[in-house]
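We append the chain.
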Amino acid sequence: MDQKVYLMSILDYAIQQKGQDVFLKSHSVPRLRLGDRVVEIPSCQPIDAAGMRALAESILTAPQIQTLQQNKSVDFGFDHSAKGCRFRGNAFFQQGTLSMVFRLLWRGIPRFSELNLPPVLEKVALEKSGDSLFRKNDDSRDDDSDHERKSPEAHYDDRRSG
């Protein structure tokens, strides 16, 4: 099996599923982080130690391979030009076995509606000042004279010094 084709099929699946991280470990089914879950990639076979080495050698430069051998870990970038995505990667030895992790770096900024956040956060995020204060509204106070009034800056300073 061509190791680069194997990797590209896994990364294609990660992009399609909008995953965050891909985990490759010798003799284990590749895994994908989807939000707070890590799941096996379906229909994907484990890769053996020799295949993992060949995979690393197919995507790392000679200086990166030397760093991996010396430090037992190397960080690298990887372009998936066909999909217009980039991955940040790390190859490392874990219990004497080569493993790799890829983090998907999306190009462009998603629209607010694609983030699945409460609509009120869009208003807060678009405020011009950049700072937002959240304060509990306490309607139980009958007489404001019994309570010390502070400016928002004073409340902020009190929290920082505490």
Remarks:
- The first strand starts at residue 21 and ends at 25.
